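Design request, tokens follow.
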């Protein structure tokens, strides 16, 4: 029996295309809901797709029904809109009513509430890792360059910091140098955080980037993600390594990331926090 098409709600970047390609390689068709302002034509253009405003909930649901999609993957970065900028249709207003006060909570609370509503309405939510078998970064060292004892101490310091701020739904990443926290990710995202690091770095051994999932984070639609751009930005920030949560972080194009890290002498390390 042929599986029904996989619905992909696509934000920015290359990940929606990777999910679509993996589904097709497994013999399953896809239908992509491209979120206006985020989904990239070069990524979604090779698959059946339509573009929608993020708050056009009724139109999105109708399109998913017309394509017989009940399994959904929500993938690709988007910026959470201000509640005051939304222009929801009738279905969107109903969704917001069901979400309730979670609409005014942090990103984790809102996302978890939205997914609960979708599941209540019969959709089956999948993570990228359910479709792309090698999406998650493994434990251990992936690069030729390895961390020394001082770098590992910075990694452990970063883990401790993220475990402290994670429950407050602040961010997934931080930069530590010589035991000092140089930057913590907030709403700007990892790459923008890295852009701030060079201006506050200290002389001596360079710092490290550490990225973990927040406690209780909804991993089906908001798993920590690193890509080749992360390696380039880490290098530009003068860092000497990147540590990520093994089994809980998406490595977008792992082979290219390893190649880029080896080319500039940065270590890439999967850790169990």
């Amino acid at each position: 029996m042929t599986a029904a098409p996989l619905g992909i709600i696509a934000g920015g970047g290359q990940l929606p295309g990777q999910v679509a390609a993996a589904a097709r390689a497994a013999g399953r068709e896809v239908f992509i809901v491209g979120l206006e302002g985020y989904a990239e034509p070069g990524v979604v253009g090779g698959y059946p797709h339509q573009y929608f405003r993020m708050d056009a909930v009724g139109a999105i649901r109708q399109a998913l029904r017309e394509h017989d999609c009940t399994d959904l993957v929500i993938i690709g970065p988007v910026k959470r809109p201000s509640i005051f900028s939304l222009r929801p249709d009738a279905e969107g207003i109903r969704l917001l009513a069901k979400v309730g006060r979670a609409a005014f909570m942090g990103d984790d609370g809102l996302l978890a509430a939205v997914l609960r509503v979708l599941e209540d309405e019969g959709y089956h939510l999948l993570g990228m890792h359910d479709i792309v078998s090698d999406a998650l970064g493994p434990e251990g060292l992936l690069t030729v360059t390895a961390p020394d004892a001082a770098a590992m101490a910075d990694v452990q310091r970063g883990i401790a910091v993220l475990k402290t701020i994670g429950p407050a739904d602040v961010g997934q990443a931080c930069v530590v140098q010589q035991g000092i926290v140089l930057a913590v990710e907030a709403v700007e995202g990892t790459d923008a955080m890295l852009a701030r690091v060079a201006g506050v770095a200290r002389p001596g051994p360079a710092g490290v980037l550490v990225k973990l999932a927040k406690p209780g984070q909804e991993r089906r639609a908001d798993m920590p993600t690193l890509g080749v751009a992360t390696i380039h930005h880490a290098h530009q920030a003068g860092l000497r390594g990147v540590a990520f949560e093994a089994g809980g972080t998406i490595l977008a194009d792992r082979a290219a990331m390893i190649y880029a890290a080896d080319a500039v002498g940065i270590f890439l390390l999967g850790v169990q926090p």
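Comment from the thread starter after seeing the answer: thanks! The chain has a mean pLDDT of 85.
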